[in-house]
Design brief:
Strand 7 (about 230-235), helix 8 (about 240-245) and strand 8 form a beta-alpha-beta unit. Helix 5 runs antiparallel to helix 8 (about 240-245). This protein has an 8-stranded mixed beta sheet with strand order 2-1-3-4-6-5-8-7, sandwiched between helices. The protein has helices at about 35-50, 85-95, 105-115, 115-125, 170-175, 190-200, 225, 240-245, 275-280; strands spanning about 55-60, 75-80, 100-105, 130-135, 180-185, 205-210, 230-235, 255-260. It has one domain (about 30-280): Thiamin diphosphate (ThDP)-binding fold, Pyr/PP domains (Rossmann fold, 3-Layer(aba) Sandwich), CATH 3.40.50.970. The protein is an alpha/beta fold. It is about 30% helix and about 15% strand.
Length: about 280
C-alpha cells in the first residue's frame, strides 16, 4: 500500500477525532460542483461521530468518478475493478469481521456491470455498508446514459433518449433482502452523515442511495436542491409497508425507508487458518 494511503496512526485517548482526521493528503480531482465532494465530507463527519479509528475502517470501491473516494481518506482503501467492489468488500468483511467495511460506487459501476453483485450482496446480508452516488449518467466516460437515466433524456450519445425504463435501486434492494435502505442528498452533508451513521451501525447489509448531481454533463441537476423532500421517508421494519411506500416514491424523497431485523450473515464454524507459505506452495508452477 502506498504510504500516502496508509491509515493514520491511532490518536491518544485525550484527542477527539474530527472529520479532518479521516482525510488523506490527496486532493479530489472531481469537477467543480460535483456532488461527490459532499459524500466525502459527510463520510468523514460520520466516521468522526462514531469515533472509529481510521485503521479500523476499510473503504472499497470499483471504477468511476465516485470510486476515487478511497484515495481521499486516511483509512484503509481498496480500488478494485469495474462492478466488483461488493465482491471485494464481502470477502474482506468475512475475512476481517473486526473491520468496519464501507463500499462506495456510482450508478454505472453499481447497477450495470455490478448489478448482479448488488442483488446478491442484499441477499447475503453481510454486515457492511454500500454507498452509491447516483447522478444518472456516466460522468467519467463523458456522458453516456446509465441504468438510472430517464428514458427521455436527450444527449449526443442518446438522441431523443434511450426509451428504457430506469433501474429502481431501492425497490431492488428491498426485494433482494437488504437490511437497511435509505436515500440522501449531497446538498445536505450533515443529514447524509446522520444517515451513514445509522447505516453503519445497523446490522447486516445497509444500502444508501445518494443523489449526487453531475453538474458537468447534467447541469439541470442543479435544480435537485429545490426538488428533494427531506424526511419524506420514515423507517419501518415491515417489508410490505416499505414496498407500498415505494409505490408513491418520487425519486427525490429522502430519509430511511427500511430498517429490518434479519440477522447478519455469519460464517459457520471456526475459521481455519493456514500459514501463507502453505497457500503459496499450492500455486507454484
Amino acid at each position: 500500500m502506498n504510504e500516502a494511503l496508509s491509515p493514520a496512526p491511532a490518536k491518544s485517548a485525550d484527542h477527539a477525532l474530527t472529520a479532518a482526521d479521516y482525510k488523506s493528503d490527496i486532493k479530489p480531482v472531481w469537477c467543480p460542483g460535483c456532488g461527490d465532494f459532499g459524500v466525502v465530507n459527510a463520510l468523514t463527519k460520520a466516521l468522526a461521530k462514531m469515533a472509529l479509528e481510521p485503521r479500523n475502517v476499510a473503504v472499497v470501491s470499483g471504477i468511476g468518478c465516485s470510486s476515487r473516494i478511497p484515495a481521499y481518506l486516511s483509512s484503509y482503501g481498496f480500488h478494485g475493478v469495474h462492478g466488483r467492489a461488493l465482491a471485494a468488500g464481502t470477502g474482506l468483511k468475512i475475512a476481517r469481521p473486526d473491520l468496519t467495511v464501507i463500499v462506495t460506487g456510482g450508478d454505472g459501476d453499481g447497477y450495470s456491470i455490478g448489478g448482479n453483485h448488488f442483488l446478491h450482496a442484499c441477499r447475503r446480508n453481510v454486515d457492511m455498508t454500500y454507498i452509491v452516488m447516483d447522478n444518472r449518467v456516466y460522468g467519467m466516460t463523458k456522458g453516456q446514459p446509465s441504468p438510472t437515466t430517464e428514458p427521455d433524456w436527450d444527449s449526443k450519445l442518446s438522441p431523443e433518449g434511450t426509451g428504457l425504463r430506469e433501474f429502481q435501486p431501492m425497490v431492488v434492494a428491498l426485494a433482494s433482502g437488504a437490511n437497511f435502505i435509505a436515500r440522501a442528498f449531497t446538498g445536505d452533508p450533515n443529514a447524509l452523515a446522520d444517515v451513514i451513521v445509522q447505516a453503519v451501525r445497523h446490522p447486516g447489509f445497509s444500502f444508501v442511495e445518494v443523489l449526487s448531481p453531475c453538474v458537468t454533463f447534467r447541469p439541470e441537476q442543479k435544480e435537485w436542491k429545490k426538488i428533494v423532500r427531506s424526511d419524506a421517508l420514515r423507517p419501518t421494519a415491515d417489508v410490505s409497508r416499505a414496498a407500498r411506500r415505494m409505490l408513491r416514491d418520487t425519486g427525490f424523497d429522502l430519509g430511511v425507508l427500511y430498517a429490518g431485523e434479519r440477522p447478519a450473515y455469519a460464517p459457520r464454524g471456526p475459521r481455519a487458518t493456514r500459514p501463507v507459505a502453505d497457500l503459496e506452495a499450492r500455486f507454484e508452477l
